[in-house]
From TrEMBL:
The lineage of its organism: Eukaryota, Sar, Stramenopiles, Oomycota, Peronosporomycetes. GO terms for molecular function: phosphatidylinositol-3,4-bisphosphate 4-phosphatase activity. It comes from Phytophthora cactorum. Residues 154-192, 216-239 are annotated as: Disordered. One of its GO terms (cellular component) is cytoplasm. Residues 159-172 have a biased composition (Acidic residues). Keywords: Hydrolase, Lipid metabolism. Residues 229-239 have a biased composition (Basic and acidic residues). This is Uncharacterized protein. Residues 178-192 have a biased composition (Low complexity).
Length: 608
């Protein structure tokens, strides 16, 4: 998978459409990743005279990094040197990153996600700690301590190396061939760890249990004919994934046996814990790989805009407070999409272990270095732009990352989850509450270090007011309705704090298109506070600001770039909604009727 990805990067063929999101060999690449720029011109009419700075601003090609010329940087004027009236005349540019959910589609989404796996590992660890003192004090020499029934009742897909549970940590450890003889089985219990890295006792126990499991499977008296249910399970889509899924071993204690003193129970728990831990690390690596790609894309887009505009205030904010990235999730809290939220939440919070370092150079390759407490992403900056940076960033100071996720399902599955009171709704509420606390802490750090003198041009309100509105929306969230105001207030809050924005749904082309065009229409209409009031109260007037926003959004949905993104993925200038699905969307997220599919096509030509 890594070698193929490197080859695709060399060939500059790194786009993964929504049709390929389940391909295991490229699952580390984000799905349908796009960055778009939305430029607003404030003045119109024949008497409008462009400000001189407008001629020096970069074109779309410059923003996308297609033009290597540094000429416009020499002529650029700092925004801080302009008056408020002059600043209002300058075109306003916003960057938006969109993608599919950062999740491991190829590893399956019917059983659990990263969050559920963390909870299960914690439960196994708690159970193991109760029996660890006795277990670790007694050497295990009998491979039959692993109960054969736990192995023979399940079908285990073949692995390249059964005993390589620790991956690179045990890469140098000699592993003997496992056979059915007692001598070979006993030899598996005396494997010594590599001198470079000492294997944990849990890993040693897992290898012993694995050898015993292989012996039990090869024994004729325990071989059972696979049932039709097991064969169907083997032939299912998720069993065809490259990376095999481990079944749940029986870990409950036997009747009349104390689990704290049972060696059999302890070995079963260790074996299951090691299997689960291996799958967790692989799944997390895939999800984090996708989320980091979106993070780097978003950061470079925002950094490019700051350098184009010579926005010293935002550059100083990055150096002193860090980079804020706000994720907007539109996937539902029901079914497989609930586990997408689980994967994405863990992957997005993991981004806070990354930091950015700006380096002077013309090499356009981004380098990631591992540190003791996280990772450093080195971003090369051409010399002309590097000279604009604050002294702290020039000297190599790191830019920390603060990552928040606000989620609210908007499709028909969210309607179903709300009707039946699905438990996923409470997870959605918990994620939003945690993210609100995180963004509030970021705002407090910002006001302490940089002050509160912020421009209200792009969002129409002061951050303090926006955060109050966001808090009300988060606290009033209930499981009976779709509270889309959370998404709108969260988007305004992130933009008011000069953060980057990433919007995603399952495939990054349909619900994402509805949200992105709505946000751009709200940025265009300079009465967003009144728009939100109409949305919250449900009292839209015929010619009010909300109707204006809907008209602008629908025009973008029908004739803008989002319909071309849909065509790029599925080959049709149509969003993957039918009339029923469109009706179940919130009104402000409904696409024009001319852009949706018929009922038959929406079922037969699905890309999921």
């Amino acid at each position: 998978m890594i070698r193929l990805t490197e080859h695709l990067v060399e060939d500059k063929k790194t786009f993964k459409s929504s049709l390929h999101k389940k391909r295991a060999d490229i699952q580390g690449i984000p799905t349908n990743l796009h960055v778009s720029y939305f430029r607003i011109f404030r003045h119109f009419g024949s008497q409008f005279v462009p400000h001189p700075l407008m001629d020096t601003q970069a074109s779309t090609e410059d923003l996308l990094g297609l033009d290597d010329s540094d000429a416009h940087f020499g002529a650029a004027i700092s925004l801080q040197s302009l008056s408020m009236q002059e600043r209002a005349m300058i075109p306003e540019t916003h960057a938006t990153v969109t993608c599919g959910a950062p999740t491991a589609h190829a590893m399956g989404l019917s059983d659990c996600g990263l969050r559920e796996m963390e909870l299960e590992m914690q439960n196994f660890q708690t159970a193991l700690e109760k029996s660890t003192p006795w277990l670790m004090g007694s050497p295990v020499s009998d491979s039959n301590c692993f109960i054969p029934e736990d192995s023979s009742d399940f079908f285990y897909p073949p692995m390249e190396d059964e005993n390589e549970a620790e991956g690179e940590e045990d890469a140098d450890t000699p592993v003997p061939n496992v056979s059915t003889s007692p001598t070979a089985a006993a030899s598996a219990t005396v494997v010594e760890p590599a001198p470079k890295k000492k294997a944990s006792k849990y890993s040693m126990m897992a290898r012993r249990a694995s050898a015993a499991r292989a012996k039990a499977l090869s024994s004729n008296r325990f071989v059972k004919k696979k049932s039709s249910r097991q064969l169907d399970q083997k032939n299912s889509d998720e069993k065809n994934a490259v990376y095999a899924k481990y079944p749940s071993l029986r870990v409950e204690s036997e009747e009349g046996v104390d689990p704290t003193t049972s060696i059999n129970y302890a070995v079963r728990v260790v074996c299951r814990l090691e299997m689960l831990r291996t799958e967790y690390y692989l799944r997390k690596s895939v999800a984090v790989s996708q989320s980091v790609s979106s993070l780097v894309t978003c950061f470079m887009a925002e950094l490019d805009l700051c350098l184009q505009e010579r926005n010293d205030k935002v550059l100083n904010q990055m150096a002193k407070v860090g980079f804020l990235i706000g994720w907007e999730s539109l996937i539902s809290s029901h079914g497989k999409e609930l586990y997408m939220i689980s994967d994405a939440w863990v992957a997005i919070k993991c981004l806070e272990t990354f930091s950015f370092k700006l380096c002077e150079g013309t090499d356009m390759e981004v380098v990631v270095e591992k540190q003791d407490v996280g990772y450093i992403i080195k971003i090369p900056v051409p010399p002309a732009q590097f000279a604009i940076l604050p002294e702290s960033l020039k000297s190599g100071e790191l830019i920390s990352v603060t990552s928040v996720l606000f989620t609210q399902g908007i499709n028909e599955m969210q309607s179903l989850a709300n009707m039946v009171g699905h438990s996923g709704v409470s997870i959605q509420r918990k994620i939003n509450s945690t993210s609100f606390r995180t963004i509030s802490e970021y705002y407090n750090r910002f006001t302490e270090i940089c002050g509160i003198g912020m421009s209200e041009v792009s969002v129409g309100s002061h951050p303090d007011e926006i955060l109050r509105n966001l808090r009300v929306s988060v606290e009033s969230e209930n499981s009976a309705s779709k509270n889309t105001c959370i998404l709108l207030h969260a988007a305004d809050a992130v933009r008011s704090l000069n953060g980057g924005r990433v919007t995603y749904c399952k495939s990054g082309k349909d619900r994402t298109a509805m949200s992105t065009t709505l946000e751009q229409a709200r940025l265009l209409v300079q009465r967003k506070r009144h728009v939100l009031q109409e949305i919250e109260s449900g009292s839209a007037t015929e010619y009010g600001p909300l109707e204006e926003v809907k008209d602008v959004a629908n025009m973008m949905r029908e004739f803008g770039v989002r319909i071309h993104v849909a065509k790029k993925n599925v080959g049709r200038f149509k969003y993957s909604f039918n009339s029923l699905q469109r009706k179940l969307l919130p009104e402000i997220y409904r696409p024009p009727m001319s852009t949706i599919q018929d009922m038959v096509t929406s079922v037969t030509a699905r890309d999921s």
